[in-house]
Amino acid sequence: MSQSTTGQQLGPAPTGLTIIKIATDLPVSGKDIRLGKPAENGARLAVDQANANHTLAGYTLVFKPKDDVGPRGDNDPAVGARNVTAFVAEALVAGIVGPLNSRVEPGQHRSVPEQGDSGVGMQWLHHPVTDTASDGQGHLFPHCHHR
Questions:
Q1: How many helices (H) and strands (E) does the chain have?
Q2: 5 within domain boundaries
């Protein structure tokens, strides 16, 4: 049995492979399911194809989806922030695709430590990578965080 950095039992350790988790934080239920589900399916397909083609020799990608829809049936900044906080806390999560909606984004920016601290990359889907966003408090953030 292998263990996570927090001591959680992960099951049998893979032989000769290193696991990298790719996460999504998208609206996959509620009002925006028609937008979020195809994006989630695309990310899942990319992970499956990368594994099937051995794109990263010696590595296995694991898909880790989360829904950012709250109790009102639409994307919820608090849910998105909790999701990203959980992803950042997981040592094996290397990247996050999402959010799909700009309303969720500011809370997620605050959940990701300064670039280089967490090692988690995020790709926001609603702006080009070269854009910036504001949290409404005068702080601008790039739309792509990476190692």
A1: 3, 9
A2: no
